[in-house]
Amino acid sequence: MLTEQINNKTQEVPLSIPVLGVTIGEDRWLIPMDAISEILPVPKITPVFLTHLWFLGIINVRGNIYGLCDLAHYLDKKTTRINAKTRVFLTDSHPGTGYAILAESVLGIRDLMEFTRQPDHEDERSVIADVYNDRQNRLWRKLNLPALVRLKSFLQASS
User: Fold this and answer.
1) Domain CATH for 124
2) What is the tens place of the pLDDT at every residue in 79-97?
3) Does 88 map to a domain?
4) Could you tell me which of 106, 89, 100 has the C-alpha nearest to residue 149?
């Protein structure tokens, strides 16, 4: 909560936290917008041999190289089918450490305040920061991108 002085009264103003809603596999995910540098249609993928099936290859975005991950396959062994709705989101990273993640579809930018946090969720994977429900009681997982890019199994794409 942020406190703000209005008409000589201090009021608490909820912080707006923008997140991107996407589908990865059969699940709905929330990704903090400050972790995303760009969202784009799937560009040409250059395969890299002798890598895990979830590592689709590399993509070139305006001269910058990104490793492309099929997160659905990495997490659940379910391959994402690339179609007209499929998008790639680029992580906000340092030069030389670009990651791109495949999303089946983009559901739009949301405000995290629209969701109800589920503190007793049973999904203990380190890539899940929190679990939420929306107003229609649909389950959403918030991606912990920093935890994902630190996982040894994620960083070692070679098979």
Assistant:
1) 2.40.50.180
2) 999 999 999 999 866 555 6
3) yes
4) 100
